[in-house]
Design a protein that fits this description.
Distance between the termini: 28 Å
Structural class: mainly alpha
Radius of gyration: 21 Å
Largest sheet: 2 strands, parallel
Shape: globular
Helix content: 55-70%
Number of helices: 16
Oligomer: single chain
Length: 360
Protein backbone atom coordinates (compact mmCIF):
# COMPACT_ATOMS: atom_id res chain seq x y z
CA UNK A 1 0.00 0.00 0.00
CA UNK A 2 1.33 3.43 -0.97
CA UNK A 3 2.29 5.69 1.94
CA UNK A 4 0.40 8.99 1.89
CA UNK A 5 1.67 12.08 3.67
CA UNK A 6 -0.25 15.23 4.56
CA UNK A 7 2.01 18.22 4.13
CA UNK A 8 0.75 21.79 4.40
CA UNK A 9 2.58 24.77 2.98
CA UNK A 10 1.26 27.63 5.16
CA UNK A 11 3.16 27.94 8.42
CA UNK A 12 0.28 29.60 10.29
CA UNK A 13 -2.08 26.73 9.59
CA UNK A 14 0.39 24.19 10.91
CA UNK A 15 -0.64 25.31 14.40
CA UNK A 16 -4.34 24.75 13.71
CA UNK A 17 -4.53 21.14 14.86
CA UNK A 18 -2.44 21.73 17.99
CA UNK A 19 -4.57 24.73 18.95
CA UNK A 20 -7.85 22.95 18.22
CA UNK A 21 -6.92 19.93 20.32
CA UNK A 22 -5.98 22.20 23.22
CA UNK A 23 -9.27 24.12 22.95
CA UNK A 24 -11.40 20.97 22.84
CA UNK A 25 -9.48 19.36 25.66
CA UNK A 26 -9.99 22.50 27.76
CA UNK A 27 -13.75 22.12 27.32
CA UNK A 28 -13.73 18.67 28.92
CA UNK A 29 -11.31 19.68 31.68
CA UNK A 30 -13.18 22.88 32.54
CA UNK A 31 -16.53 21.07 32.70
CA UNK A 32 -15.01 18.05 34.45
CA UNK A 33 -16.58 15.55 32.07
CA UNK A 34 -15.27 12.54 30.19
CA UNK A 35 -15.03 12.67 26.39
CA UNK A 36 -16.48 9.15 26.32
CA UNK A 37 -20.09 8.02 26.61
CA UNK A 38 -22.42 8.81 29.49
CA UNK A 39 -25.75 7.67 30.94
CA UNK A 40 -27.62 9.22 28.02
CA UNK A 41 -25.53 7.08 25.69
CA UNK A 42 -26.56 3.93 27.55
CA UNK A 43 -30.23 4.92 27.41
CA UNK A 44 -29.96 5.61 23.69
CA UNK A 45 -28.32 2.21 23.10
CA UNK A 46 -31.15 0.47 24.91
CA UNK A 47 -33.69 2.40 22.83
CA UNK A 48 -31.98 1.47 19.55
CA UNK A 49 -31.77 -2.20 20.45
CA UNK A 50 -35.41 -2.16 21.59
CA UNK A 51 -36.45 -0.69 18.25
CA UNK A 52 -34.68 -3.56 16.48
CA UNK A 53 -35.39 -6.52 18.77
CA UNK A 54 -38.85 -5.87 20.24
CA UNK A 55 -40.62 -5.91 16.84
CA UNK A 56 -38.77 -9.12 15.95
CA UNK A 57 -39.80 -10.80 19.21
CA UNK A 58 -43.41 -9.74 18.64
CA UNK A 59 -43.34 -11.29 15.18
CA UNK A 60 -42.00 -14.56 16.59
CA UNK A 61 -44.25 -14.79 19.64
CA UNK A 62 -47.64 -13.34 18.70
CA UNK A 63 -49.95 -14.34 15.82
CA UNK A 64 -50.21 -11.14 13.77
CA UNK A 65 -51.36 -10.34 10.26
CA UNK A 66 -49.09 -9.44 7.37
CA UNK A 67 -49.80 -5.68 7.50
CA UNK A 68 -48.79 -5.38 11.15
CA UNK A 69 -45.77 -7.59 10.49
CA UNK A 70 -44.75 -5.26 7.64
CA UNK A 71 -44.93 -2.24 9.96
CA UNK A 72 -42.82 -4.10 12.49
CA UNK A 73 -40.08 -4.98 9.97
CA UNK A 74 -39.95 -1.30 8.94
CA UNK A 75 -39.34 -0.47 12.61
CA UNK A 76 -36.67 -3.16 12.68
CA UNK A 77 -34.97 -1.48 9.71
CA UNK A 78 -35.03 1.88 11.50
CA UNK A 79 -33.62 0.24 14.62
CA UNK A 80 -31.01 -1.67 12.64
CA UNK A 81 -29.69 1.56 11.13
CA UNK A 82 -29.88 3.25 14.53
CA UNK A 83 -27.74 0.54 16.13
CA UNK A 84 -25.18 0.93 13.37
CA UNK A 85 -24.97 4.70 13.64
CA UNK A 86 -25.46 5.24 17.37
CA UNK A 87 -23.99 2.15 19.05
CA UNK A 88 -21.70 0.14 16.80
CA UNK A 89 -20.03 3.20 15.29
CA UNK A 90 -18.88 4.62 18.63
CA UNK A 91 -17.88 1.18 19.89
CA UNK A 92 -15.57 0.49 16.96
CA UNK A 93 -14.02 3.94 17.23
CA UNK A 94 -13.30 3.31 20.91
CA UNK A 95 -15.35 6.35 21.89
CA UNK A 96 -18.30 4.64 23.57
CA UNK A 97 -16.46 4.04 26.83
CA UNK A 98 -13.09 4.42 28.51
CA UNK A 99 -13.18 0.64 29.04
CA UNK A 100 -11.89 -1.38 26.09
CA UNK A 101 -14.16 -4.35 26.77
CA UNK A 102 -17.23 -2.12 26.61
CA UNK A 103 -16.09 -0.69 23.28
CA UNK A 104 -15.52 -4.21 21.95
CA UNK A 105 -18.96 -5.29 23.15
CA UNK A 106 -20.71 -2.30 21.59
CA UNK A 107 -18.63 -2.66 18.44
CA UNK A 108 -19.83 -6.26 18.20
CA UNK A 109 -23.24 -4.77 17.38
CA UNK A 110 -21.92 -5.00 13.84
CA UNK A 111 -22.46 -8.76 14.05
CA UNK A 112 -26.04 -8.27 15.27
CA UNK A 113 -26.86 -6.39 12.07
CA UNK A 114 -25.18 -9.02 9.88
CA UNK A 115 -21.87 -7.45 8.97
CA UNK A 116 -18.21 -7.92 9.89
CA UNK A 117 -16.16 -5.96 12.44
CA UNK A 118 -12.76 -6.49 10.83
CA UNK A 119 -13.93 -5.23 7.41
CA UNK A 120 -15.42 -2.10 8.96
CA UNK A 121 -12.27 -1.32 10.93
CA UNK A 122 -10.17 -1.47 7.77
CA UNK A 123 -12.53 0.25 5.35
CA UNK A 124 -14.00 2.87 7.67
CA UNK A 125 -11.68 3.49 10.61
CA UNK A 126 -8.46 3.32 8.61
CA UNK A 127 -8.98 4.02 4.90
CA UNK A 128 -11.95 6.40 5.14
CA UNK A 129 -10.90 8.36 8.21
CA UNK A 130 -7.23 8.62 7.32
CA UNK A 131 -7.65 9.32 3.60
CA UNK A 132 -11.06 10.98 3.40
CA UNK A 133 -12.25 11.59 -0.18
CA UNK A 134 -8.92 10.57 -1.72
CA UNK A 135 -9.63 8.46 -4.78
CA UNK A 136 -8.06 5.01 -4.70
CA UNK A 137 -7.72 4.97 -0.91
CA UNK A 138 -11.09 5.96 0.54
CA UNK A 139 -13.28 3.01 -0.42
CA UNK A 140 -16.40 5.01 0.43
CA UNK A 141 -16.04 7.02 -2.79
CA UNK A 142 -15.04 4.20 -5.12
CA UNK A 143 -17.34 3.65 -8.09
CA UNK A 144 -20.02 1.09 -7.25
CA UNK A 145 -22.09 -0.47 -9.99
CA UNK A 146 -23.36 2.56 -11.88
CA UNK A 147 -22.79 5.24 -9.24
CA UNK A 148 -19.83 7.59 -9.72
CA UNK A 149 -18.80 9.24 -6.45
CA UNK A 150 -15.32 10.47 -7.37
CA UNK A 151 -14.48 13.11 -9.94
CA UNK A 152 -11.23 11.26 -10.63
CA UNK A 153 -12.80 8.04 -11.93
CA UNK A 154 -13.94 7.33 -15.51
CA UNK A 155 -17.21 8.93 -16.59
CA UNK A 156 -19.88 6.87 -18.34
CA UNK A 157 -22.97 8.10 -20.16
CA UNK A 158 -25.30 6.47 -17.65
CA UNK A 159 -23.84 8.57 -14.84
CA UNK A 160 -25.81 11.49 -16.28
CA UNK A 161 -28.88 10.05 -14.59
CA UNK A 162 -27.32 8.92 -11.34
CA UNK A 163 -28.90 11.75 -9.36
CA UNK A 164 -32.22 9.99 -10.07
CA UNK A 165 -31.41 6.30 -9.59
CA UNK A 166 -28.73 6.64 -6.88
CA UNK A 167 -31.30 6.96 -4.11
CA UNK A 168 -32.84 3.63 -5.11
CA UNK A 169 -29.47 1.91 -5.10
CA UNK A 170 -28.59 3.41 -1.71
CA UNK A 171 -31.21 1.10 -0.22
CA UNK A 172 -29.01 -1.86 -1.12
CA UNK A 173 -26.16 -0.79 1.18
CA UNK A 174 -26.78 -3.33 3.94
CA UNK A 175 -27.32 -6.06 1.34
CA UNK A 176 -23.98 -5.05 -0.13
CA UNK A 177 -22.37 -5.34 3.30
CA UNK A 178 -24.06 -8.67 3.98
CA UNK A 179 -22.76 -10.21 0.76
CA UNK A 180 -19.83 -7.98 -0.14
CA UNK A 181 -18.03 -8.42 3.19
CA UNK A 182 -16.85 -11.83 2.01
CA UNK A 183 -15.42 -10.69 -1.33
CA UNK A 184 -13.95 -7.62 0.35
CA UNK A 185 -12.27 -9.79 2.98
CA UNK A 186 -10.92 -12.11 0.27
CA UNK A 187 -9.33 -9.02 -1.31
CA UNK A 188 -7.83 -7.89 2.00
CA UNK A 189 -6.46 -11.39 2.58
CA UNK A 190 -4.91 -11.65 -0.90
CA UNK A 191 -3.32 -8.20 -0.72
CA UNK A 192 -1.77 -8.96 2.67
CA UNK A 193 -3.69 -6.20 4.45
CA UNK A 194 -5.20 -8.65 6.92
CA UNK A 195 -1.82 -9.83 8.17
CA UNK A 196 -0.44 -6.29 7.98
CA UNK A 197 -3.02 -5.34 10.58
CA UNK A 198 -2.05 -8.31 12.77
CA UNK A 199 -5.07 -10.47 12.01
CA UNK A 200 -5.25 -14.09 10.87
CA UNK A 201 -6.92 -14.35 7.43
CA UNK A 202 -8.38 -17.80 8.08
CA UNK A 203 -9.78 -16.79 11.46
CA UNK A 204 -11.32 -13.59 10.10
CA UNK A 205 -12.95 -15.46 7.23
CA UNK A 206 -14.34 -18.07 9.62
CA UNK A 207 -15.78 -15.33 11.83
CA UNK A 208 -17.32 -13.52 8.86
CA UNK A 209 -18.95 -16.66 7.45
CA UNK A 210 -20.07 -17.92 10.85
CA UNK A 211 -21.66 -14.62 11.85
CA UNK A 212 -23.56 -14.36 8.57
CA UNK A 213 -24.89 -17.92 8.84
CA UNK A 214 -26.12 -17.28 12.40
CA UNK A 215 -27.64 -13.96 11.36
CA UNK A 216 -29.46 -15.42 8.35
CA UNK A 217 -30.73 -18.37 10.39
CA UNK A 218 -32.04 -16.00 13.07
CA UNK A 219 -33.80 -13.46 10.87
CA UNK A 220 -35.04 -15.82 8.14
CA UNK A 221 -35.23 -19.40 9.39
CA UNK A 222 -36.65 -18.69 12.85
CA UNK A 223 -39.69 -16.78 11.52
CA UNK A 224 -40.35 -19.58 9.01
CA UNK A 225 -40.14 -22.19 11.77
CA UNK A 226 -41.97 -20.34 14.55
CA UNK A 227 -44.66 -18.33 12.75
CA UNK A 228 -47.46 -19.00 10.30
CA UNK A 229 -45.91 -16.81 7.63
CA UNK A 230 -44.84 -18.50 4.41
CA UNK A 231 -41.20 -18.51 3.35
CA UNK A 232 -41.84 -15.88 0.69
CA UNK A 233 -43.60 -13.59 3.17
CA UNK A 234 -40.62 -13.89 5.50
CA UNK A 235 -38.24 -13.06 2.64
CA UNK A 236 -40.29 -9.99 1.75
CA UNK A 237 -40.04 -8.82 5.36
CA UNK A 238 -36.29 -9.48 5.35
CA UNK A 239 -35.84 -7.46 2.16
CA UNK A 240 -37.99 -4.57 3.42
CA UNK A 241 -36.01 -4.39 6.66
CA UNK A 242 -32.72 -4.22 4.77
CA UNK A 243 -33.99 -1.68 2.25
CA UNK A 244 -35.09 0.66 5.05
CA UNK A 245 -31.84 0.27 6.99
CA UNK A 246 -29.69 0.53 3.87
CA UNK A 247 -31.33 3.73 2.68
CA UNK A 248 -30.96 5.44 6.07
CA UNK A 249 -27.38 4.28 6.48
CA UNK A 250 -26.35 5.37 2.99
CA UNK A 251 -28.00 8.76 2.92
CA UNK A 252 -26.47 9.78 6.24
CA UNK A 253 -22.94 8.76 5.25
CA UNK A 254 -23.18 10.15 1.71
CA UNK A 255 -24.28 13.60 2.89
CA UNK A 256 -21.11 13.90 4.92
CA UNK A 257 -18.69 13.84 1.98
CA UNK A 258 -20.45 13.73 -1.40
CA UNK A 259 -21.55 17.34 -1.30
CA UNK A 260 -21.10 20.43 -3.45
CA UNK A 261 -18.49 22.03 -1.17
CA UNK A 262 -16.66 18.84 -0.15
CA UNK A 263 -13.27 18.62 -1.88
CA UNK A 264 -11.77 15.48 -3.38
CA UNK A 265 -8.03 16.18 -3.16
CA UNK A 266 -5.36 14.28 -5.05
CA UNK A 267 -1.85 13.19 -4.10
CA UNK A 268 1.26 13.87 -6.15
CA UNK A 269 3.74 11.32 -7.49
CA UNK A 270 5.46 11.27 -4.10
CA UNK A 271 2.27 10.41 -2.25
CA UNK A 272 1.90 13.90 -0.76
CA UNK A 273 -1.36 15.82 -0.47
CA UNK A 274 -0.93 19.55 -0.02
CA UNK A 275 -2.66 20.09 3.32
CA UNK A 276 -2.23 19.24 6.95
CA UNK A 277 -4.37 16.24 7.99
CA UNK A 278 -6.80 18.23 10.14
CA UNK A 279 -7.34 20.84 7.44
CA UNK A 280 -7.84 18.05 4.92
CA UNK A 281 -10.69 16.75 7.09
CA UNK A 282 -12.36 20.17 7.13
CA UNK A 283 -12.05 20.53 3.36
CA UNK A 284 -13.59 17.13 2.65
CA UNK A 285 -16.30 16.93 5.30
CA UNK A 286 -19.67 18.61 5.75
CA UNK A 287 -22.06 18.94 8.70
CA UNK A 288 -25.80 19.02 8.11
CA UNK A 289 -28.88 19.95 10.15
CA UNK A 290 -26.86 20.65 13.33
CA UNK A 291 -29.88 22.10 15.15
CA UNK A 292 -32.21 19.21 14.37
CA UNK A 293 -32.34 17.56 17.81
CA UNK A 294 -34.24 14.43 16.73
CA UNK A 295 -31.93 13.80 13.78
CA UNK A 296 -28.85 14.40 15.92
CA UNK A 297 -30.11 11.87 18.48
CA UNK A 298 -31.02 9.20 15.94
CA UNK A 299 -28.01 9.34 13.59
CA UNK A 300 -25.48 9.22 16.40
CA UNK A 301 -24.17 12.71 15.82
CA UNK A 302 -23.13 11.82 12.29
CA UNK A 303 -24.63 15.09 11.13
CA UNK A 304 -21.63 16.57 12.99
CA UNK A 305 -19.21 14.83 10.64
CA UNK A 306 -16.58 17.56 10.92
CA UNK A 307 -16.26 16.96 14.65
CA UNK A 308 -16.42 13.21 14.17
CA UNK A 309 -13.59 13.17 11.63
CA UNK A 310 -11.40 15.38 13.75
CA UNK A 311 -12.18 13.59 17.02
CA UNK A 312 -13.44 10.04 16.29
CA UNK A 313 -12.28 8.99 19.79
CA UNK A 314 -14.80 11.37 21.39
CA UNK A 315 -18.32 10.05 21.95
CA UNK A 316 -20.85 11.57 19.57
CA UNK A 317 -22.96 12.79 22.51
CA UNK A 318 -20.45 15.65 22.87
CA UNK A 319 -20.25 16.77 19.24
CA UNK A 320 -22.93 19.46 19.46
CA UNK A 321 -21.06 20.96 22.42
CA UNK A 322 -17.61 21.01 20.86
CA UNK A 323 -18.90 22.13 17.46
CA UNK A 324 -18.80 25.88 18.35
CA UNK A 325 -15.20 25.40 19.52
CA UNK A 326 -14.18 23.78 16.23
CA UNK A 327 -16.01 26.42 14.22
CA UNK A 328 -14.44 29.32 16.17
CA UNK A 329 -10.93 27.87 15.90
CA UNK A 330 -11.36 27.23 12.18
CA UNK A 331 -12.42 30.84 11.67
CA UNK A 332 -9.39 32.10 13.60
CA UNK A 333 -7.06 30.16 11.30
CA UNK A 334 -8.94 30.96 8.10
CA UNK A 335 -9.93 27.34 7.58
CA UNK A 336 -13.33 26.52 5.99
CA UNK A 337 -16.00 24.94 8.17
CA UNK A 338 -18.76 23.44 6.02
CA UNK A 339 -22.21 23.16 7.54
CA UNK A 340 -25.63 22.97 5.85
CA UNK A 341 -28.47 24.20 8.07
CA UNK A 342 -31.25 21.71 7.24
CA UNK A 343 -31.69 18.11 6.13
CA UNK A 344 -33.65 19.22 3.06
CA UNK A 345 -30.88 21.55 1.90
CA UNK A 346 -28.31 18.80 2.52
CA UNK A 347 -30.24 16.37 0.31
CA UNK A 348 -30.49 19.11 -2.34
CA UNK A 349 -26.73 19.68 -2.19
CA UNK A 350 -26.00 15.96 -2.41
CA UNK A 351 -28.30 15.64 -5.42
CA UNK A 352 -26.52 18.54 -7.13
CA UNK A 353 -23.16 16.90 -6.44
CA UNK A 354 -24.39 13.67 -8.03
CA UNK A 355 -25.41 15.73 -11.08
CA UNK A 356 -21.94 17.33 -11.20
CA UNK A 357 -20.24 13.95 -10.98
CA UNK A 358 -22.42 12.76 -13.85
CA UNK A 359 -21.23 15.60 -16.12
CA UNK A 360 -17.55 16.13 -15.24
Amino acid sequence: MKVIRFQGTEMGKKLFWKTLKANVNAYFVTNNISPKGNTQMVIKSIAMYAMYLVPFILILVYPINAIIALILVVLMGIGKAGIGMSVMHDGLHGSYSSKKWVNRLMGASMYVIGSNVFNWKLQHNIFHHAYTNIDGLDEDIQTRWIIRLSEHTPLKSIHKYQYIYAYLLYSLMTFSMLIGDITQLVGYNKSGLTRLHKANPTREMAIALGVKLVYLFTVICLPIILTNFTWWQVLIGFVVMHLVAGFIFSIVFQMAHIMENAAQPTVDENGITQNEWAIHQLLTTVNFAPKNRLLNWYVGGLNFQVEHHLFPNICHMHYKHISPIVQKTAKEFGVPYHSIPTLGKAIFSHTNRLKELGKV
